[in-house]
Every structure is written in C-alpha cells, then in structure tokens.
Design brief:
The structure is a homodimer of 460-residue chains.
Chain A lengths: L2 H11 L3 E2 L2 H6 L14 E4 L3 H14 L3 E4 L16 E4 L6 E5 L4 E4 L5 H8 L4 E2 L10 H6 L7 H4 L2 H4 E7 L5 E5 L12 H4 L8 E8 L1 E2 L3 E8 L3 H13 L4 E7 L1 H11 L8 E8 L2 H17 L4 E5 L2 H12 L1 H7 L5 E4 L2 E2 L5 H14 L4 E6 L4 E8 L4 H20 L18 H5 L2 H12 L18
Parallel strand pairs in A: 2-4, 3-4
Antiparallel strand pairs in A: 1-2, 5-6, 6-10, 7-11, 8-9, 8-10, 12-14, 12-15, 13-14, 13-18, 16-19, 17-19, 18-19
C-alpha cells in the first residue's frame, strides 16, 4: 500500500483505521495458524457506506482488500498474502430485523451465530448452521460453512435468502430474494456464497430461521472400527429417520474428548446421533428403530441422553473435539482435510484414509459430519518438521485424489483459501477457466482477497 | 439462418435435422400459446457430442439456438423469437444411473419427471419436483421449476447436485458435485439453473432422490374467503408440522375442478394439505393438530383422505386445476402470474390481488403453492380483446409492484421467458447490470436463446 493510499484512508476514516502492531498481528493469520502475513492497515468499518468507500479507495489506489470478522477460517482465507487492507467487519454486528412469522432474520455480516441464536430464543426459533468457533455470518456465507446441523438443515447456501454485496470499485447490489423461492433472473447469490470475499464483500444477509425442535434424544454409540461406525451412519441415513445430527469421532478423538472434558466415554470409534420427533410417543418409536439399526450394524453400546442437560453434556464433547484434539499435541501445528464424498462411498473412503495414514506412520485423527459424507482428518506435526509435513501433504493428496475419483469434493465446508488451491484443477477441470473468467469480470484488477481460491499456475 | 448454415447442419446431422412445416410449427410456441414464431430448423440431438457440434456450427454461422424438450414452459421460453435452430433434446431421455444407496440419479435432460419416478419406484425412492405437464428435467432445471412438493423438498435448485453444461462455441463443463455439500470454488451450477438456456445447454443432470414417505394423510378444507384460507396456510406453516404439500384453490378453481373431474366438492376457497409421519400413531397426532389449526382458522369443513386411492383422487383434482380452469374459458387465452412473497405477507398479498382483479372487473382465478408464499392468478380473455388484455396487464403490473415492495419476486417457479422481462429492472436494480455482464461473458455473440430473461431496453 502506498503512503498516498494510507493517507487517503486516514483522511476518510480517522480513528477507524489502525496500523498498531498488535492490531496488524491479530489480522495476520486465521484459526489454522499455518500462515502469518500482516496487512498494511486494518479498517474497522461501521456501515455499508464505509465498505463502499474503502472499495472505492482500493480501486483508486490499487490496494488489496481482505474481509475479516471473527478470524475463524481454517484454510488461510483471512491472510493478507499481498498486504493491503484488512477490512474488519466485526463491528457491523447488529441483528437488524427478526421476522418471526416469515421465519427470517436480517443481520449485519459481523454478527456471530451464537449471538444470533441468543437473540432468537424468545421467538422459539433458531439458526441451524454451527461451524464451531465464534464464526460470523458473513464469514460463514463466504465459505459456505456448515457443521453438525447440515445433515438436517443444509449449509449456509441453503439458509441465505438475500445478500447485499459491495463489489470492487464501490458498486452495491442486492442478490436473491426474501421469498422462499424465485425463478427470476440469473442466480448471482450463489456466486458470492463460498467466494471467500474474492468477488465482493457481503454487507447484509437475510437468512432462514427454523423452529426449535420440540422433542429430541441424543445417542452415543461406539464400534470396534471406524469403518463399522461409518457403515452404520450410512444405514441410518438410508432409513430416513428424522435426524438432527449424525457425527463421528475416532478412537483418538474419544481419547482427546475424555482428557479435555474429564469424561470416561469408551475410547472407541463413536457415533453421536440426535433424533427429533413431533411428540414423545413418536420420539420413542424413532429411538427404538435407530437403536436397532445401530446394534444390527455392530454397535457395542448405545447410550441415550434425554434431558436437555444430558444432551448438552454429550454434544459439548463433540463440539469441543477440534480443540481437544489440538490439545493432545501441544506445540504442534494441525492441518485439517475436509473431504466430502457421495454417501454410499463414505465407508470405503474412510477405510482408504485410515490405511493411508497408518501406512505413512502419521499422527492423525478423524472426525466428521458423516451424515453428509463429510469428514476431517487432523494431521499433527511440529511446525518445523519438514519431512513429516511432506508425508502429510502426500497422504492428503492421495486421499483427495481418491475422493475426487469417487465424485466427491476437496472441501465439504471449510472452503479453499490458500491450502486447497492445488486441488481445484483436478476437481473442476474446464470449469476452473470459467471461474477465472467470473473473477476477472467482477474484480478485473484482482483487488478482492487476491491469491485465494484460484490456483496461480496461470494468470487471471 | 443462412443457406450455408442450413447446409452445414444438414451435412453433419442428416435426418436428425428437420424443416418439415409440422415440426417447425410444433416448435413455434410453448404451453402458454401466447406467442408463435417458427425456428428455421429443428435438430433432434441424440448425444452431448451432437449438442456440442450444433453449438460450434451456431458460433461459426451465427444462428440462434433455442433448447427445447417437453415444450411445457409457460413464459414463452421456448419461442425462437429470432429464428435459428430449435435444439430438441427430447430424445436424450435416458435414466443413466440410479445410485439408490447415495440417494441420487444421473439422467439426460430430456427425461420427464413422471418417467423418472416410474423408474425409481422399485427402489422405494422418488423425485419430488412436480411442476405439472410432462416436463423434462433439463427444462425444469432451466426454469428452476417446483410444484406441490417444494414446501417440503424445495425446488429444482435444491435437487440438482451436478450438471454437465455445453457452453456457446462448444465447450463442455461439469459444475457442482455429487457430494451432498461442497465449498470448493465458485458455484457456477446455480448460474445455469434458472437461466432458461441463455447461458448454456444442460446435457446431463445428477439429482437428489428421496425415500417415499411411509405414512401419509391428505386433507381438503374449505373456507369462506380466500384470505382466510391463506391465513390458515400461514398458521399451518408456523406450526412446523411435517407437511408434504400445502395448496390453495379459490372458488372458481373448485367450480372448474368439479366440472372437469365430475366431483362435488364445496365450491369455496379450499386448502389441499398432505401430512407425513414416521408411524400411524405419529400421523394421527399430526392430523389431529392440523385439523384443530384449520378449524381455529375458520375452516367450514375438514375432509381427510387416508387410503392411497382416496389421496390420489384428491390430488388429481388439484393437479388438473390449471387445465380445468383453462377449460372453463374455451377459445380464451390464459395468462398466469407467478408471484411469490415472504410467507407473513401472503394473506395481505392475496387480498390485494383479489381486490385489484375485482375492481378491474376481470375474469381470473387464483391457485397456489401457498406454503411457499407462491400463487398464480390465471387471467382469461379472448386473444383479440385488446382492451381487456390492457386491463389484465395493468392489474398484473400493480400486483407485481406490490409483491416486490413486500420483498417478493415476480416469479416463484415459471421463470421469466418473454413475459416477465419488464419486471426485472424493478426487482433486481443494479444486479441486472451484473446479469447482463454474465450473459455477455458466457455468450458474447448472444446466440443462446436470445431475447429471453434480460429486458432489451439497453444493449447486452
């Protein structure tokens, strides 16, 4: 960023602009911590007008703009690899409107999903996308985040009705509709969902809300092998029960959970299941059916949690698993895969992953949203152990090639960022050229979060 | 189309190309019948390679290409307003693969949804989008079609996992993924869904399948006013029952149904409802709750149909309503609106429409997928009665402005075609310019279904 650019930003934004070392440092990395690169400045925006003026100055002075809010991305999305301005939207965090009768809310991009849910409780409604961390809705839309609720409610892509998006140069558009469905014109909304801020900056979202399910039961059931647990997950999906969640943790995951939570769950591959029904009687029927399915699939025990407190206890363990697993390896860096395959291929894919990891002698744990065919392998190694990281990348590559050959995707929910760019050619083929053309159309000067998503083997 | 173009097509395609008057005539209009314009030739394609070669010749000889299959669109989408080639995909009608364990099927674009469902029955699965007519899946994706199942399963946009799309000039790309979710790269898939063949030609679809619901009950309940019926629909949606369908017909609709089916339903505004549950006991609970809701909302009678035969009888009436209503006005043309508003605004919107129609002294009937906030007003008038058509357009415009002011859309499921282009500026504002840019990017010579979706008040 030139001194002139910095002066122009300072003149327009005053104290909202910061170049304090601690602030620059806090905007130099994301949750993965795998890259560190400081922006030239951080701008705390308060309004859509602030965003538009920042984009106008960006075009005029040709500096990069990297949207930032909660900082919880996992693929390096927030890292300002070409410097420029970190556009911090975390103060645009208002819930603007809750239309309870229409099951929708309009929010600013910096609001976190736990905070939105806190404000929704009095309405008996909730927002079902729970990627973990204290993620912001703008960031969640920008990576098409999901989480444990996706098996029932879908991903961010399924929740976003309407967006306001600030484009390069300072144009503003509204995309999508507040109606539940529309066949009017080209669907631009889905271009911006999952674009990681490379095509525009989301300044407002209208999202769907859902009634809190009335009758719930949570199950925890453990298996001899991770493949058996995955096969059971597929059987449960095939039975079309009214599932709210369906999660898998491997043996190491259970070990980490027990250590982190002080619990004493059997340290075996385990499914976490949540079932819903419209009445206690219907719930009991569903529970009995699901228990039978699990036992038929080789479950060694099935524990059910009925009360809200018991269920919260059970789910806390699963929700903390990522941090619990990182905690097993202090001083190590962690790299997470995020593959997603068609459901029928999940058990085979997990067996492939387990075998590749074991053959390479790597330390890795496996957890996932298996009802969606999505799972994460967390690799742990000391940051400076180059030989191990080479082996990790090799296993990661082989797993990804297998998933793509099965019709899957290199990212189920984390996005591409810096880490998965190298898989995009293989996954998308010729369509990658069209993606490049779309980027060039909407951001001809490559100022919006440059260096993310698209591989750099050919110029934009 | 030049003689050279026709010769080149003939040389490549031989008997697959037709210029027979009856064939040209059959490709000159869609189901609405409001416009007639013949293509210069019709090409019956058998394969993706045929489509690609046709697009190469189109670019070389600069003739327009208008995709065609079942011919059931309602907004003039299939009318070759600039002549050229009608690309008939109806013979590409194979179900290529059913992955029952993965809940997905891969099909060619010309297969119709009733035929797909016929082939799915042995698997205990079904495809839930039912727009009426014998629509093809390629056409349904191209208009983002929906129907009575959308309130439970969503629209085509929610069902399509992966597409193969032939682009202008003869490039082929694969967009989307067979995984249930993906955060990998820009979402190009949704650009082609609802694009009405103006951005590319869909040559293959992989779609989601669903288990046939096991326990169902259908209800028919009638009300004094159409506003009361709509308010009841909103109350049912708010109660979050496990709905499969939620449909509305007005008094004239019931009159038409009775005449068409020989039935004797009360000729009053009526809701058609279908409920599902996982067991007979749960179904009875849901039914009792729904019946109470309807009675509290002023239902004058609630009739329940339990057996498959009774339910089929009830739904036949609703499914035939469009044709039954057209049959009330022999020799008239029919124009259908397709507004969709946020659910909480539905009763007010329907009251507005009813009042505008009555004040203008027009003949019109109202039916709709009210669980989605989507309803159709069918206007009937003799084709040559210009004064009445002017009044119809005026009422149509006022209804549309009202729906857009409420945050709704000019099309819930039929698409834009020729008829709704004039609403796009008002609905999309600045985003319309981005739509034009996307069209220019993907079809720089404006050869793919030209004259559709985008209004012509400024050049592409």
């Amino acid at each position: 960023m030139t001194p002139e650019a910095l002066s122009a930003l300072r003149a327009r934004f005053g104290e909202q602009l910061s170049t304090a070392p601690a602030v620059l440092h806090a905007h130099a990395h994301d949750e993965s911590g795998l890259e560190h690169m400081q922006p030239h400045a951080v701008l705390f925006v308060h309004s859509e007008d602030d965003v538009l003026d920042a984009l106008r100055l960006s075009e005029l002075h040709r500096f990069a703009v990297v949207p930032f809010a909660a900082g919880s991305s996992l693929e390096g999305q927030l890292v300002p690899v070409r410097g420029g301005l970190s556009l911090d939207l975390s103060r645009m965090n208002a819930v603007l409107d809750v239309q309870a009768g229409g099951f929708q809310a309009t929010v600013q991009p910096g609001v976190t999903y736990p905070e939105l849910n806190r404000q929704l409780r009095p309405h008996g409604l909730f927002f079902p996308v729970d990627p973990g961390a204290e993620a912001s809705l703008g960031g969640m839309a920008s990576t098409n985040a999901s989480g444990t609720g996706a098996v029932r409610y879908g991903t961010m892509r399924d929740q976003v009705l309407e967006l306001r998006v600030a484009l390069a140069g300072g144009r503003i558009i509204r995309v999508g509709s507040r109606a539940r469905k529309s066949s009017s014109g080209y669907d631009l909304k889905h271009l911006f969902i999952g674009a990681e801020g490379t095509l525009g900056v989301i300044t407002q979202l209208t999202v769907k809300l859902w009634p809190l399910p009335s009758h719930l039961v949570a199950l925890r059931c453990s298996f001899d092998t991770v493949e058996a647990a995955a096969a059971c997950a597929v059987a449960i999906m095939t039975a079309a029960l009214q599932l709210e969640r369906l999660e898998l943790l491997d043996t190491e995951g259970l070990r980490a959970v027990n250590r982190h939570e002080g619990s004493a769950y059997p340290e075996r591959p385990t499914l976490w299941i949540e079932l819903a029904a419209s009445s206690p009687a219907a719930l009991n029927e569903t529970l009995a059916l699901c228990r039978d399915l699990c036992l038929d699939a080789g479950a060694l025990e099935v524990a059910a949690a009925h009360s809200p407190a018991e269920r919260a206890e059970l789910w806390k363990a699963r929700h903390h698993a990522y941090y619990a697993l990182r905690g097993l390896y202090p001083g190590h860096s962690t790299l997470s895969t995020d593959l997603c395959v068609p459901l029928q291929h999940l058990p085979g894919m997990i067996a492939f992953a387990r075998s590749a990891i074991d053959t390479a002698g790597l330390q890795a744990s496996l957890l996932g949203h298996v009802g969606d065919g999505n799972f994460h392998v967390l690799f742990h190694a000391p940051p400076d152990d180059a030989a191990t990281w080479d082996r990790i990348q090799d296993v990661y590559d082989r797993m990804t090639r297998e998933a793509l050959a099965l019709g899957g995707t290199c990212s189920g929910e984390h996005g591409v960022g810096l880490h998965k760019r190298r898989f995009l050619r293989l996954e998308h083929g010729e369509a990658l050229e069209v993606m490049r053309e779309v980027k060039a159309l909407l951001d001809p000067q490559n100022l919006l979060n440059p260096g993310k998503i698209l591989p750099e083997d050919s110029a934009l």
